[in-house]
């Protein structure tokens, strides 16, 4: 006999194996429970991979970044890098306690939303900081970018907050058995909350997409203006200063904005399944790749050629450290060194000093071989 128990997030009246869940954030379409479980496994794998990456590169990060004073870029770097870690921990706690304690589940959902909001804003401010540094750190540019950031930040924070509140209310309505602990302020009609979520999610996506496109155009213009008259390949230069972050964010958000399915479940449910899974897979991958690309942008900004501009970037992002001065990305020559003599990077984008030592020893001149022992060329001592 088939069980007809209602599953979480299920729409009223749907039962058994044919249950179609209501997914907020994409639209009012129903999806099977197995697909949600698969996406949960994918999200867990992405979170574990990102946390593992942060753990394996923590020692180099402490040695190269945490040793000196605090800068704006260093704060943005740490928020961008560890925001997804906080979100992953909150997600894990929420999944473990979803059937146990309503209060803890709601608190972790709210904390997860705050971490996501802070990470997204940190990545966007990193773009602004990079553009500000590339323009020489002038005060007029600072005011201009500050106004632009306010025009973007205020609508984004408002829409994101409303979306998170809608998700929390839906979560409270979905949890059964402990509704006595739910405040009456959250007892809103489900249809009203769903409309909140759909409308404000659309507004948020339009805001982010517009901002990303504008920032990309401005970034490409700044890079082209900065390197005008020099014999540098523009595409290579854009990649070197973190253009991959701009382009990846615009492409993923464009896909999420225009690759959505209808509000109502279509007649061919397999099409809805495919579109839903593709969009959700892209969200999971973006949540992991975007912070990596953004932190790479901060590190690669130190590879500019102008000494004055490099000093400006160093003051804004990472202060000079003689032990870890080469945090930049190399071009990938045969010996692993770029045009500026940078050290080959190891795991996590940090300097691989052991490999660099091997390169130094291999480059030492050899003058002859006697009885199987290589004699190194020595400088003659100066006579007194």
UniProtKB/TrEMBL annotation:
Annotated spans, Disordered: 330-351
Domain of life: Eukaryota
UniProt keywords, alphabetically: Membrane, Transmembrane, Transmembrane helix
Cited InterPro entries: DUF6533 (IPR045340)
Protein's UniProt keywords contain Transmembrane: yes
Ranges annotated as biased composition (Gly residues): 338-349
Alphabetical list of Pfam families matching this protein: DUF6533
Protein name: DUF6533 domain-containing protein
Organism: Ephemerocybe angulata
Lineage: Eukaryota, Fungi, Dikarya, Basidiomycota, Agaricomycotina
């Amino acid at each position: 006999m088939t069980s007809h128990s209602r599953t979480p997030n299920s729409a009223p009246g749907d039962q058994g194996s044919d249950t179609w869940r209501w997914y907020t954030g994409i639209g009012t379409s129903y999806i099977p429970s197995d697909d949600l479980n698969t996406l949960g496994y994918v999200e867990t794998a992405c979170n574990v991979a990102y946390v593992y990456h942060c753990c394996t590169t923590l020692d180099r990060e402490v040695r190269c970044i945490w040793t000196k004073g605090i800068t704006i870029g260093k704060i943005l770097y740490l928020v961008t890098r560890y925001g997804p870690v906080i979100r992953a921990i909150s997600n894990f706690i929420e999944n473990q306690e979803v059937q146990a304690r309503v209060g803890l589940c709601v608190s972790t959902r709210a904390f997860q939303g705050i971490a996501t909001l802070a990470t997204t804003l940190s990545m966007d401010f990193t773009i602004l900081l990079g553009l500000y540094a590339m323009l020489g750190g002038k005060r007029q540019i600072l005011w201009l970018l500050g106004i632009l950031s306010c025009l973007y930040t205020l609508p984004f924070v408002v829409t994101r907050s409303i979306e998170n509140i809608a998700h929390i209310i839906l979560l409270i309505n979905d949890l059964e058995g402990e509704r006595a602990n739910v405040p009456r302020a959250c007892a809103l009609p489900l249809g009203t909350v769903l409309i909140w979520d759909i409308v404000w999610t659309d507004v948020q996506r339009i805001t982010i997409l517009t901002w990303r496109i504008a920032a990309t155009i401005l970034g490409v213009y700044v890079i082209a203006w900065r390197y005008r008259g020099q014999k540098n390949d523009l595409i290579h230069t854009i990649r070197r200063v973190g253009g991959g972050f701009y382009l990846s964010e615009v492409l993923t958000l464009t896909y999420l904005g225009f690759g959505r399915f209808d509000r109502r479940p279509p007649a061919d449910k397999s099409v809805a399944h495919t579109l839903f899974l593709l969009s959700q897979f892209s969200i999971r991958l973006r949540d992991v790749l975007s912070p990596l690309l953004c932190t790479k942008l901060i590190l690669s900004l130190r590879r500019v050629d102008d000494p004055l501009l490099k000093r400006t970037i160093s003051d804004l992002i990472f202060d000079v450290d003689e032990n870890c001065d080469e945090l930049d990305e190399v071009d990938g020559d045969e010996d692993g060194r770029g045009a500026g003599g940078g050290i080959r990077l190891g795991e996590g984008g940090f300097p691989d000093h052991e490999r660099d030592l091997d390169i130094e020893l291999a480059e030492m001149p050899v003058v002859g071989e006697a009885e199987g022992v290589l004699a190194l060329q020595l400088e003659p001592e100066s006579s007194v």
